[in-house]
Amino acid sequence: MNNKKGFTLIELLVVVLILGILAAMAMPQYFKAVERSRMSEAVSLLGNIAGAQQRKYLQINKYATDYRGLDVAPAGATSNTYYTKGDVTTGDGGNGFKVTIAGTDYVDGIATATRVADTGTLNYEYNLTRYYASNDTTCNGTNANGQSLCADFCGIDTPVAACCSTGTSSACEAPVTGN
Length: 179
Hints:
Elements: H1 9-60, E1 81-83, E2 97-102, E3 110-115, E4 126-131, E5 138-141, H2 144-154, E6 162-164
Antiparallel strand pairs: 1-2, 2-3, 3-4, 4-5, 5-6
C-alpha cells in the first residue's frame, strides 16, 4: 500500500502556470488603477490652484503668474512651474507631474499638469488642463494608453486625443467673459 501524500511536479507546474496567467491578466488593470489615482491627485491639485487663483483675481483683478503669489503655493516653488515628485524646480529624481500656471486675465488663466518621468517613457502619457474660471478639466492623451485613460476620466467609450470632464469628446471650452 502506497500512502505517499503530496503533489507531483506536473501538478505544481500547472498551478504555477495558472497563477502566472492570472497575474498577467491582472497587472495591466492594477497599473491603470494606480494611474487613475495619480490622475485624481492632479485633478484635485488643479482645483486647489484654480480656487487660489480665483481668490487672487478678486484681490487684484488679475491672476498670479508665479506660485509665490498664491495662498496654496507648494513648498519650494519659485516660478510658474513646479514638479510634484523629485526636485520641485527641475523634476530630477521624480515620477509625478509638471504643474504650470499661465495667463493673467479671466479668459486665458490656465493651470496644466503634465505627467513626467525622470527617465524613459511612460506607459500612460497625458496632461490635464483647467481654466481658473471653470470647473471642467480637459484631459489630453499623448499615447494610446493615455488616450484610453482620458476616455475613462471623461466617461466616454472611444479613446480620443482630448476630452472634457463633462463627457464631451473634445477639449473644454474657455470662459467667455469675466463680467
